[in-house]
Every structure is written in C-alpha cells, then in structure tokens.
Amino acid sequence: MLIKIPGVGDCSESQVTPEKAYLGRRRVLQGMMASAACSVIPRLSWADAERYADVPAAAAPGWFADKLRHTRWQALPEDESLTPYRDATHYNNFYEFGPGKGDPARNAAGMVIEPWAVLVDGEVERPGKYSVEELFAPSQLEERIYRLRCVEAWSMVIPWLGFPLAELIRRLEPTSAAKYVRFETLARPEQMPGMRGDFSLIDWPYVEALRMDEAMHPLTLLAVGMYGRVLPNQNGAPLRLVVPWKYGFKSIKSIVRISFVREQPATTWQRMAPQEYGFYANVNPQVSHPRWSQARERRLPGSLFNPNIRETLLFNGYADQVSHLYAGMDLSRDY
Ligand SMILES: Nc1nc2c(c(=O)[nH]1)N[C@H]1C(S)=C(S)[C@@H](COP(=O)(O)O)O[C@H]1N2
Ligand SMILES: [Mo]
Predict the structure, then answer these.
(1) CB 3.0–4.6 Å: which of 39, 177, 230, 279 could bond 60 by disulfide?
(2) Which is nearest to 225 in space by CA: 19, 46, 64, 17?
(3) Alpha-helix runs per DSSP H in 36-119
(4) pLDDT number for residue 31
C-alpha cells in the first residue's frame, strides 16, 4: 500500500519535523522517515528546495503559490519510486488533444485555463459558478503519492497536490437525493485539436462519475498540482480528479462541471464500449479487458531490456482502504 492517510490528529507535535532539519538533504530524508506520513512541513517549501529541484519552474497563479507554503508534504514511500516528471508529462491520455501518448504534451499548451469556472448543479444546496480559487480557498493543499494504473496496463507513481473531494462536497451540501457525482471536462474544439480530427469518435464532452460514497472516500482527490507545481495542461489543468483504486480513465481532467444526480450517469468509455469498460472500473487483476489482461502492468518508464513488469494488485493496492465500499457486490459482474 502506498499511502495510509493519517487524520490531522494522528500527527503529534514531535512528529512534525522542525524547520532546521530541512537544511541538509540527508537530514531531510532522515526527518521524513522518522515522521513517516505525518510530516507537516512548516514555511520553507521543501518541494522547491529539494525534492523537485529538477522539475521545471512553472508560472502559477498567486493563490496557488500561497497555498504551497502551507502544503502538507508526504514522505516518499520506501517501496516505490516516483515516476520521473518528464514521463508523467509526456506519456499522457487526454483525447481532446489527440489519440497519441505524445499529443497532449504537444497540443495542450493552447488550452486557456485562466479564467476558469466550474458549474455546480443538480441536487445540491449551493449550486453556482465557482472559480478554481473559490473552490480551493478554504482547503489546505496536501501531497498524495499515488499509483496510477491505466486500463492499457501501464502504471506510474505520481505525487499529486490537492485536497479530498469530500471536503468540497461537504461545503456544497448535496441533498439526500444526490446519489452520484458527475463530472464534465471542458469541450472547446478551437483549442483542442483532438476534438476536430477524424479520429474523434468520442461523444464530447468527456464525462465521468462516482457513486457518492466513492466520491466521499478520503483517498479521492481533487488535484491542482503535481511534483510540487501547478498541473501542466496535458495532465488536466487547472483541476482534475484522482481516484487511485480505479483505472486511470475515471480520473477526469480539466473539470468544468460537477453535478449531483439521482441516477447513475452514462460515462464516456462505458457509453462508447460497454463490453469493454464498466461504470466502476475498479482495478482488478482477475477481470480481464477484452484486449488486455489486467493481471500485470508495465511500470513506466521501462525499456526494451527492462520492461519493468509487475503484478497488478486488487484495487491497485488500496484494497484495505476501499474494499468495504463494494461489500456484497460481485466484482466480476459489476466491473
Ligand atoms: N478529459 C479527459 N480526462 C481523462 C482522459 C481523457 O482522454 N480526457 N484520459 C484518462 C485516462 S485513460 C488516463 S490513463 C488518465 C491519464 O492521466 P495522466 O495523463 O495525467 O497520466 O487521464 C484520464 N482522464
Ligand atoms: Mo487510461
């Protein structure tokens, strides 16, 4: 398991590494190991100073830079290494910018992300149009290092920056009629070449959804950054979903609409190829996709000589935290 989220109350004062411990890199690591997942890093941005020193600087809106100073960074897991930033930002799926893995990095820079509004509607007490800044203002940013497992059988380990979707949902106050949360991606063909090409079979906009209890699960993240920086456009700027126990396609990018609904929504891949993609899309090595076995995965970056193959884990390794959500369900039928 990659991360067990501690409650804030689980971190005792002595586990909060003092600032002077961050001055030397070796001492940083020792400090992090000792405090495990409880490292609340004060003032000095360790991300900028050390861990992500080789990640290119990116222009960030003022509110983001502000939040970064109070971010709760996660200790690096001992049993996993982070996917290099270069791979995480140049091997992408974002069909709005084209079908190739390199298309999003090549084409997404043209997407205008400021200003950005998110429409909140449906069964909810506080509907409206919110800016990203408004959505994030009351919450602290947290780093979450998660495995990302694509249904195409490759995987990465990505350090996200965001906050639990549950926090936002509580603030928006869905009514008791809300059973699912539905998300929509921006659809702006003039800035998204993948929407214009012949290949574009998808019924835009890209839509994903979660059952309410999945959306409220503490692992479900609304991300605005990765690797200590704002999200690059190709990774779903300015805000995206991250659901680490599900196949990557559930983690919808560049969200412009969040709707609280009564019925299970039709989602993009499920609608296009219902025999291939289910609504739940929980990572499951036992349930094969018609074109891919899901038993194993290629951890990127690999090479011809070292393809870096590993066993896929049920719920992508997060079973101890999420399997209760599916108690009584037949995972081979409700996939
Ligand atoms: N709007 C939108 N969101 C999307 C996709 C997409 O094509 N469009 N692809 C999904 C798929 S299949 C995966 S594996 C992940 C990839 O996220 P990454 O490029 O940040 O690794 O994004 C998901 N979110
Ligand atoms: Mo994917």
Answers:
(1) 230
(2) 64
(3) 46, 62-68, 85-88, 103-107
(4) 38
pLDDT of residue 304: 86
CATH code for position 65: 3.90.420.10
Per-residue pLDDT, 39: 43
pLDDT value for 44: 44
DSSP class of 261 = E
Cα–ligand 1 centroid distance for 161 (angstroms): 17
Measured between alpha carbons, how far apart are the two ends of the chain, in Å? 22
332 inside domain: no
Distance 264 CA to ligand 1 centre (A): 21
- In a mutational test of the pocket of ligand 1, which residue from 94, 156, 294 has the highest number of ligand atoms less than 8 Å from its CB? 94
Longest dimension (CA), the chain: 59
- Alpha helices, DSSP H, located in 103-195: 103-107, 132-136, 165-172
Domain that holds residue 129: 13-326
**Ligand with an atom nearest the CA of residue 156:** 1
Residue ranges in 186-326 assigned as alpha helix (H):
212-215, 268-272, 319-322
In a domain, 244, yes or no: yes
Binding residues: 92, 95-96, 150, 185, 235, 240, 251-253
What per-residue confidence (pLDDT) applies to 33? 39
**Does the CB atom of residue 150 touch ligand 1 within 6 A?**
yes
Cβ of 94 closer than 6 Å to ligand 1, yes or no, is yes
Strand partners, 292: 289
Domain count, the chain: 1
Q: Provide block-wise average pLDDT over 10 residues at a time, the chain (335 residues).
A: 44 36 37 40 52 87 90 89 96 96 97 97 98 95 97 97 98 98 97 83 93 98 96 98 98 98 96 88 92 93 91 98 96 85
For residue 46, what pLDDT is reported? 60
In a domain, 84, yes or no: yes
Is residue 3 one of the residues assigned to a domain? no
Question: Angle CA(187)–CA(191)–CA(197) in degrees, nearest 5?
Answer: 80
